[in-house]
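Preliminary data (for renewal application), zinc ion complex.
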Amino acid sequence: MEVRFLADVNVVKLARLLRVLGYDAKVIPDEDDNHLIATALKEDRILLTRDTQIMRRRIVTIGRLKALLVQDDRPEQQLRQVVSALRLDYNLGRFTRCLECNEVLVERAKEDMRDLVPPYVFKTQTEFRQCPGCKRVYWRGTHWQNMNHDLEQWQAGVRP
Ligand SMILES: [Zn+2]
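Predicted structure:
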C-alpha cells in the first residue's frame, strides 16, 4: 500500500519534495499538535515533524501513531532521510501531484491551455497537466528539468 504523509508546518518544503515524487503529503497550516495527531490517525498518515515533543507522546512511543522525526534542516537531506527510512520510490510518479495543494493533477488537452500559459510555453510544450484545486497548470519546462536532474543526483547518492 502506498504510504501517505501528514507534514508538520516545520517541514513544509519536505512535503513539496514528496509531492514532486508523487507521494500524498498533506500539510495543515496552523494546527495544534492534538489536531495534527488526530488527523494523522484518522487518515492513516505518517506524521513528519521536527518537533521532539510530539515524538515523546505516548501515542507515538507505543507505536499507535507512526511518526518520523526529521533530523536535518535542509529539505533535500530531509527527503533523503524519509526516502531511506521508509524505502520510498523515487520513480513513483513524478509530477503527478500539485506542489502547492497536494491534489492529483489532471491531464489537459493542449488546445485548452492556450489562454492559461505564456505563448512561448504553448508553442513549445505538448503535455499539460492541471490541478483541479488551485487550477495551476504544469508542463515539462526548465523548472521541471532542473528538478528532475536534482532528483537523479540525490537518487544516485551524489551530495547536492
Ligand atoms: Zn493545486
